[in-house]
Amino acid sequence: MNEHLENLKEIRSLMERSSKFLSLSGLSGISAGVCALLGAWYAHQKIHIDALYLLFDPVVRQEIVPLLLIDAAFVLIGALLSGAFFTIRKARKQGLNVWNSTSKRLLNSMLVPLFAGGIFCLGLIYNGFFWIAFPATLVFYGIALVNASKYTVRDTYYLGMGEIVLGIISLFLARWNLIFWAAGFGVLHIVYGVVMYFKYDKITA
């Protein structure tokens, strides 16, 4: 009887591994959060919280917005590179191929909301609604995580919901948009990464 139960557990484990991408590393979340906090700190040096409304001024916007877009690009690149490094390292420790049918489904499920959100935010910035781009990035990113969570660990779903909630609240508190952005992409990612690390990574360490 015990042997049959062990066989069933093994089959269930194999099925889960084939249907879910389990190589996401907690260190990826932590590194992404650190990159976001550094980017938020730089942005804060350029526009103080009380000065967000100055972006209504076309002259101010022309000077500051390009700097913030470059800042956002560096944050994104840093988060992607560090995330890829830690995820690939974990996959190798597990003896798994990081690029497989499950990871492709995971990526595809994220691409549509991320691409749509990116274009939407660029449209907001182009039309002078820069302060709305902060909460919009949180909401679209959260939707992407929720959409992708069916292909990976459940914790990703909760991270996505947290991003969406912060983004929605931020819509009504424009003065504090940068703080909400830092909390969502920075603090939530770090908390998520720490939970992931001790919940999953330590097992394979």
Q: What does this protein look like?
A:
- The chain is mainly α and 205 residues long.
- The chain has one domain (24-204).
- The chain contains seven helices and no strands.
- The protein has helices spanning 2-19, 26-46, 58-94, 101-126, 130-148, 155-171, 177-204.
- Helix 2 (26-46) packs antiparallel against helix 7.
- The protein is globular and about 55 Å long.
- The relative contact order is 0.17.
- Residues 7-19 have low confidence and may be disordered.
Layout of helices and strands, plus pairs?
Layout (H helix, E strand, L loop, with lengths): L1 H18 L6 H21 L11 H37 L6 H26 L3 H19 L6 H17 L5 H28 L1
Helix pairs in contact: 2-3, 2-7, 4-5, 5-6, 5-7, 6-7
List keywords for this structure.
single chain; 81% helix; mainly alpha
Instruction: Report the span from N to C terminus.
Output: 32 Å
Helix proportion range: over 70%
Stretches with pLDDT under 50, minimum 5 residues: 7-19
- Helix and strand run: HHHHHHH
Integer count of domains: 1
Rg over CA atoms:
19 Å
Q: Largest sheet at a glance?
A: none
Global geometry: globular
Continuous helix count: 7
Structural class: mainly alpha
- Beta-strand content bin: under 5%
Per DSSP E runs of 2 or more residues, the count of β-strands stands at 0
Nearest-integer average pLDDT: 79
